[in-house]
Amino acid sequence: MEETFQREIVLRTLGLSKKFGKRWAARNLNLEVHRGDIFCFLGPNGAGKSTAIRMILTLLRPTSGSIEMFGKDLHQNRQDVLSRVCGIVEKPDFYLYLSAYKNLQILGSMNRSVRSDEIMEILDVVGLKSRAFEKVRTFSHGMKQRLGIAQALLTKPELIILDEPTTGLDPQGMKEIRELIKRLSHERSMTIFLSSHLLSEVELVATRMAVINKGELIAQGTVSELLGKEATDYTLQVFPFHSALELMGSLTWVKVLSVGNGAMEVRVEPGQAPELNKYLVTHGISVSSFSPHRSLEDFFLKVTGGKSEI
Amino acid sequence: MKLVWFETVKTFSRWRTYIGFSVIALIVIITEVVMRLSADEILYRMLRSLEKDFLISGNVLNGWFVTAFIMNSLHIHMPFLITLVAGDVVSSEATSGTVRLLLIRPPSRSRIITAKYITTFFYTAGLVLFLGLLCILLGLTLFGSGDLIIHHYGRFGIIYIEEAEIPIRMLFAFIAAIWSMMAVASIAFLLSTLAENSVGPIIGTMAVVVVFLVIGNFPLDFFRSLKPYLFTTYLTFWQRFLDDPIPWQQIGSSAAILGLHSILLFLIALGVYTRKDIKS
To answer: What are the pLDDT digits (tens) for A117-129?
Structure first.
């Protein structure tokens, strides 16, 4: 049952493309977002993330391709589909001359009838209850960002699409948004589609991800699937250290990359890590740590040709 | 209806919306107070040529006359005041970025743009009615009531309307004025859908109105031949409700031409907006 739940696709793009003049901002994107995912959409600045998100949220008309949400074609079932989706594109901009409460009332009521207590409850969730009746003009960027998430939550969406939600926030603000995203996914069973170029952020929240560069999809899958493929470098802490070093020197499928601080970095043939561990243990070496180098940053730099904006 | 209500709340929550009302209040109050203080001079100027041919008695400089006098300047300052909001109602969403929040909601773009157009109509109607009511109320207070004797610029003779008939004629005149001003508002509205700030639509609309007015009033045959095709020619058709007899056919054709302009401009705005890529 859980398997079926996880596999349900809430968003699928088929050959989604957008051309501005002679330039393809997005080309042949085939994305799949499953229910319950925290799906991170990665790419360098200008890669086409926002263009794709704007097409998904009907702000841009695709040049070609189609978008399905909840198994329905978006453009043929726009009202029904968008009543189950909400998002923030780039930065959350509000009616500055209205209060936070009034903004939520107007925006929320465009999806469904919202009660006053619902608005106050959501403002409480994002920590803005005490500022409910103040004009948004007086809010900081972080508060607007939280209000942006509040307006998305108010409509009780099944899918939330957030375009660079931590941009411009200080570390504390970034942490708050990150925690909020995790909480929404776990406590409210929402599917989250999140674009970012902040890899450290993505690494902490993503369950699945896709990487886009120059408008084209480069990779897509679960985080472990994508990073696991690249995990051939490891850091080892072993004892006795020099015996281990000698042993590994005799193995053709292991290369010692560096040694220092009581640890060594080695590269093994793909899939050979368990073999190396077993080999060391059977030769009387204590292995206290055997950790893979599979950082998202390495992966990202590799698949985007090193053109990260990090 | 909910969308219209929200658009109305947004429009009337902005201080910009009240500039028009404040300016009108200033114009009307200053004009009527100055007219009251200069009543003798005005009466002398009004009657010195008429008294050669007519025997005039009663309260000629009354509230109705003052209202008609101020309304004559409608096509000069009202378009500008209307464009302040009509030229901003769509473009301000792009300027502020709220368009990205607005257009990802379930209501279709055509419903949203229609709600904005209806709100523009409310604002335009509100502004014209405010002008009319303020003119009448202040006019009747300062000058009292009486029969209406007026002379339309560029036309021969004077028109006399009995006091009892004036309120209903004024009501029709205001409705016609709203209709006229909606044609101007529709230009600003269309330009607002094309622009991402309100300066362009406001200047653009005023440029169209001024250029058309100048062309329409240029004393050359070529420009006179163009006059029937310029919507500004029909903007003052509300004055026909103060003619005697009322030229219903002329009013009907003017209203139809202005109405067609408004509908056409709205349909173009609708087409533009529903197909527009939101890149801002």
So the answer is: 999 998 988 888 9
